[in-house]
Amino acid sequence: MMRKLFGTKQDRDMRALKPILAEINSLEPKYQAMSDDELKNQTQIFKDKLQKGSTVNDILPDAFAVVREAGRRVMNMRHFDVQMLGGITLHQGKISEMKTGEGKTLTATLPLYLNALAGKGAHLVTVNDYLAQRDSHEMGKLYNWLGLSVGVIIANMDDEDRKAAYQADITYGTNNEFAFDYLRDNMKFDLNDYVQREHHFCIVDEVDSILIDEARTPLLISGPSEGDTRLYGVVDKIIPKLVKDTHYTVDEKAKSSVLTEEGILKVQELLQIGNLYDVRNIETLHHVNQSLRAHTLFKNEVDYVVRDGKVIIVDEFTGRMKEGSRWSDGLHQAVEAKEGVEVKSENQTLASITFQNYFRLYSKLSGMTGTADTEADEFMKIYNLEVVVIPTNLPMIRNDQADVVYATRQAKYEAVAKLIEECHKKGQPVLVGTISIESSELISNVLSSKGIKHEVLNAKNHAREAEIVALAGQRGGVTIATNMAGRGTDIKLTAETKSLGGLYIIGTERHESRRIDNQLRGRSGRQGDPGASKFFLSLEDDLMRIFGSDRIKGIMVKLGMKDDEPIEHSMITNAIAKAQKKVETHNFDIRKHLLDFDNVMNEQRKVIYKIRRDILNDEGNNELIQDFIDEVAFELAAQYQPEKKGTVRDFPWDEINQAAKNAFGVEQTLTPEECSQKHKGELADYLREVGATSIQKKFEGFDPEQVKYTYREVLLATFDQFWKDHLLAMDHLKEGINLRSYGQKDPLVEYKREAFTIYENMKFAIKRAVVERISHIKLMTQEEIEAIHREQEKLLQAQLKAHQDAMAAEAMAEEKKIIRATVKVGRNDPCPCGSGKKFKSCHGA
Asked: Where are the transmembrane segments (predicted)?
């Protein structure tokens, strides 16, 4: 009754779109009357309108009408009305469900052209390199004719070509390449090396495949967590040579240990390096700090135990061993080196993102596919994408027959082979869909035994796949393929094969998702063509075996049915539909679970990547460091200012002075008198002022460009190091978090809580490390650099002279050997070398 009163959702969607379509159609005569040059000039006219304040919605009817007319002239392809409807839907940031063969590739040209006019780029994402290259080449003719540039992103391209492709008005590429380029960009050290620009507008082709089927696996860029583990062993050897309170101080309450000025000099001497705080030595400094912590703060049989050559953490609350857990930030390796066990390198995540969160970066996202309606709820919940079902250009006349179920898999395959043989004899083309390579090979063997020529497809060769699928509609053609094979390529029928009944689709098993079954059926019956589809099942199929096949088999036995007799019953069909729905729900839960966890990281990732870009752009680096100084000063004040109220003199000034020296490189002595007089006893203000002044004086007299470069490099190196370590810590947290459910705790809530704590700790650790590194770094004047060069040149010359002397001595020794071996001469006779000396005092010596 409700549908009769208000219509279906599809009816309502079409009612909203048809007025726009009518306006586009009314403009067709206007643009048909234009010359080629006049039509091409419309692109610049549209751009000018957008510059003057018009919106893309204002120019949509004209822009779509121009693309339709250009398509007719350039490619002899005029957009159908249903393609116009699909194009409007895509422009509105929705998913356009269009059946196979309705021309999604041509449909996408409409919104891509319109949204590219803003000059911010428009992307089309597809499932493989072959389709990206094919579509960019074929549709590129249309865009180029209208004055827009086209690029394509495929595997193994260098950064220069990638950047050029992203700078094009319209860019085609695969989901993996787009997402990995985003991650790689945010690991680079120069903004000029970034290949992507802003994420403006994107159409995802085969949107269900990319945003649902592939959404269960996050994209990761991994690498060794700390590079060469041998450095841990090298650094570990020097720590016992340091003396407490002379070379380092330990604060057990704050669980920290810090090198003193003397300690820094001692470490530099032991490691034979110049400046420990030089940007080039940041990795070594990190190892020294962690090794110092391992030796001074972490005790065997208290914080950890050593069992079977492994360092196992002891839970500080329960006293139990935490098998499989590892400290992050290189601390675990430092403890391993201290205990003399194998130092294990870890493959850690350097960057990660899910497809869900990558595609949500776009200001406007849309998608198209032949099968999205079954996942409409998920698209709305995860991506806020509405699914609009576009009607077919011509009525669908494909004959979708009822499923048939056999007792055994062998009986099913025999029935499938029999139907293929019948179709093959009369010349009707057949496409056989399987859900595994194994099934494809079984059917192929059966057909080979019957002498039926056929093609077998898998997803390994996309170019070959497209070629075979394109020819699958020829007379007598038999093609066996996995259900996903051939997507994006039309199976074209000849007039003869249309008269023979069109393409016959045979499904050999129900997929766990109804959508995949619909994709297979959708290969037939395109553009009003004839066709048929039928699914053959057996009680031994996974889906049937799991859901009540024993009971059904019992009924078949009671009825006296043979293995090769099929059963057709609504109960079977309903059971399959329920099974598929249950599996779809389970898979949705997995994807939702992954997204819930990645959402926590996503907010952190966006903040870090934004800060990183600003650092590279030298936007506010001075102010950022000043903020860090303020926060470190505040944190130190909170740590050393007594909780009980008292006078400023009651503060632990020896500890405060040491902390200020470690954190800010302060040379002056801080006193309670100065704190009272200048800052009214506020320790945080006092520390903030002396810290800022100390760092300011450090860089006085240096070239501002040199200082700016130093700030940028220290900030970047520190952020990258701590972000990398943070990702490793988050990986370890995620690995064990689901065990919290045994303690009646929600793992997601626990993950969010602990992730927040880890993130906050990382943020302060970055601030502290940046301030310490800036405070202790040593810049050199031009005179000092030249003096070092002179010293290096002197040293080089001395080394060269020593080398030449050694070579001369070696030559002399060789000459002596030869003379001794070849000349008979007395010791007091003149030396044969002609020196005038006696032999005994020359070569005879």
From this structure: none
Rounded Cα–Cα distance for residues 331 and 319 (Å): 20
Strands 310-314 and 321-322: antiparallel
Answer yes or no: do 416 and 521 share one domain: yes
Spatial CB neighbours of 286, under 8 Å, sequence gap ≥ 6? 330, 721
Query: What are the residues whose beta carbons fall under 8 Å from the beta carbon of 674, sequence distance 6 or more?
Result: 686
What single DSSP character describes residue 321? E
* C-alpha span between 205 and 368 (Å, rounded): 5
Q: Is the pLDDT of residue 721 over 80?
A: yes
**Residue for token pair 């043989």:** 421
pLDDT band at 490 (very low <50, low <70, confident <90, very high): confident
Say whether 105 counts as a known binding-site residue. yes
Q: Tell me, what CATH number does 75's domain have?
A: 3.40.50.300
Same domain, yes or no: 746 and 790: no
Rounded distance between C-alpha atoms, residue 83 and residue 368, angstroms: 11
Q: Does the pLDDT value for residue 404 go beyond 50?
A: yes
**CA–CA distance, 123 with 115 (Å, rounded to integer):** 10
> In whole angstroms, what separates CA 53 from the centre of its chain?
36
Concatenate the DSSP letters of all residues of 428-496 into one string: --EEEEESSHHHHHHHHHHHHHTT---EE--TT-HHHHHHHHHTTTSTT-EEEEETTTTTTS--PPPHH
Enumerate residues 6+ apart whose C-beta is below 8 A from 431.
472, 479, 481, 491, 503, 504, 505, 506, 520, 523, 524
Check the annotation: does 490 bind a ligand: yes
Q: Which domain holds residue 179?
A: 9-221+356-389
What CATH number should be reported for the domain holding residue 740? 1.10.3060.10
Residues 147 and 273 in one domain: no
List, in order, residues 6 or more apart from 505 with CB less than 8 Å away. 430, 431, 433, 520, 521, 523, 524, 531, 532, 533, 534
CA dihedral 749, 753, 755, 761 (to 10 degrees): 180
Q: Is 813 within a domain? A: yes
**DSSP-derived 3-state class of residue 360:** coil
Query: Which tokens sit at 382?
Result: 């995860």
Q: Compute the CA torsion angle 592, 122, 130, 443 (nearest 10 deg).
A: 40
- Which residue shows structure tokens 């306006």? 23
Q: Tell me the C-alpha distance between 205 and 137, whole Å.
A: 16
Whole-angstrom distance, CA of residue 508 vs CA of residue 569:
18
Pair 558, 639 in one domain: no
Which of 776, 810, 831 corresponds to the end of one domain?
Answer: 776
Q: What is the pLDDT of residues 788-820, one digit of tens each?
A: 677 777 777 777 777 778 777 777 777 777 666
Beta strand 170-174 with 478-482 is: unpaired
Cα separations (Å) of 634 from 629, 688, 698? 9, 8, 22
Assigned token pair, 168: 């094009």
169 - beta bridge partners? none
CATH of the domain at 235: 3.90.1440.10
Q: What b/e sequence results for 661-694 when a residue is b if at least 16 CB atoms lie within 10 Å of its CB, and e otherwise?
A: bbbbbbeeebebeebeeebebebbbbbbebbbeb
Is 101 annotated in some ligand binding site? yes
What is residue 409's three-state secondary structure? helix
Residues 335 and 383 in one domain: no
- Read out DSSP for 168-233? SSEEEEEHHHHHHHHHHHTT-S-GGG-------EEEEETHHIIIIITTTS-EEEEEESSS-THHHH
Task: Say what the pLDDT of residue 555 is.
Answer: 63
d(CA 37, CA 676): 80
Q: Is the pLDDT of residue 697 over 60?
A: yes
What 3-state DSSP class applies to 396? coil
Contact 109, 169 (CB under 8 A): no
pLDDT tens digits for 413-422?
889 989 999 9
CA distance 178 to 560: 58
First to last CA, the chain: 122
Determine the Cα–Cα distance for residues 173 and 210; give it in Å rounded to an integer.
13
